[in-house]
């Protein structure tokens, strides 16, 4: 019997990796993607599976109840919510869209789950909800202390999800992933922005001293972790998905310089720091590991393959970088 999963935000970076992996590895699962096709939702991300008869696409916004209803159609066995505004810098420039999608959108989905009696709802969240972690690693029961408009909007989503479980017994799960990298990542984020700038011989803007720490997770490991938690997680629980690859931004930058054959002196520009910049994130992922998930991609290999992917897939990112992205880049970096 085929099960159908509704994947919201399935044209985005992590959502599309999830869709590709599920259709490739789970023959008994069909997928409906609901995606608003904002700037980061790109049909090219699912090109290789779009012809699969198990794939269905609905264009729409998760904050629009009618679009959610249309996507659910006769019913689905699970909803996995990837749809979100995700970029911290954009949330600092313009927070409103984050509230609409990450807070209101999550609310609309939860109401649909409740009304339609959908058996599973998984909220894709982030380690950013824990805020800056001076030492040690965040565990799922730690207090959440979001510090950017983006992180606060995701925390607002998480709190609603948990409250629905307590109040209505809604069968929810939350995953909190660490910084994710790999193919098809929109080039506003650190790794794809730096790789593509370096390929073009442009400078890369390192915020502040570059000694901020992030924990890196390959997108395929992240996608598999979400599918694993969906299938094996305990309703009402949160699962951290951390890569276990803590690096400073400068370490990442130096590696990318090596991979693209550029030098620090000519290519790196230290610029004004991000406002309210979280210095360090770190996740304790032992709960997800005890559930049977293990990240498989070694960071060095994953990073080199990612750089090679951007080199060989200029046809994917050049149209993005020459479009609306240009005005965002100006707005974000010109004054720094
Ligand atoms: O930790 C998970 C989060 O990772 C996700 O929830 C977010 O959706 C995702 O955007 C990412 O957030 P970050 O703010 O950590 O990612 P970003 O790629 O924007 O930045 C990574 C680090 O690199 C951060 O310390 C800021 C720094 N940075 C970033 C950019 C874009 C720079 O130094 N220069 C830059 O131009």
From TrEMBL:
Give the UniProt keywords, A-Z. Lyase, NAD
What Enzyme Commission number(s) appear in the record? 4.2.1.46
Q: Which SUPFAM superfamilies match?
A: NAD(P)-binding Rossmann-fold domains (SSF51735)
Q: Which EC main class describes this enzyme?
A: lyase
Concerning CDD domains, the annotation shows: dTDP_GD_SDR_e (cd05246)
Q: Which residues form the NAD(P)-binding domain?
A: 6-306
Question: Which prosthetic group or cofactor does it need?
Answer: NAD(+)
Matches recorded under Pfam families = GDP_Man_Dehyd
Where does the record place a coiled coil? none
One GO term under biological process is:
nucleotide-sugar metabolic process
Which reaction is this enzyme known to catalyze? dTDP-alpha-D-glucose = dTDP-4-dehydro-6-deoxy-alpha-D-glucose + H2O
GO terms, molecular function? dTDP-glucose 4,6-dehydratase activity
> Highest taxon of the source?
Bacteria
| NCBIfam families noted in UniProt | dTDP_gluc_dehyt (TIGR01181)
Similarity-based family: Belongs to the NAD(P)-dependent epimerase/dehydratase family. dTDP-glucose dehydratase subfamily.
**By its UniProt entry, which PANTHER family does this protein fall under?**
DTDP-D-GLUCOSE 4,6-DEHYDRATASE-RELATED
What this protein is called in its record is: dTDP-glucose 4,6-dehydratase
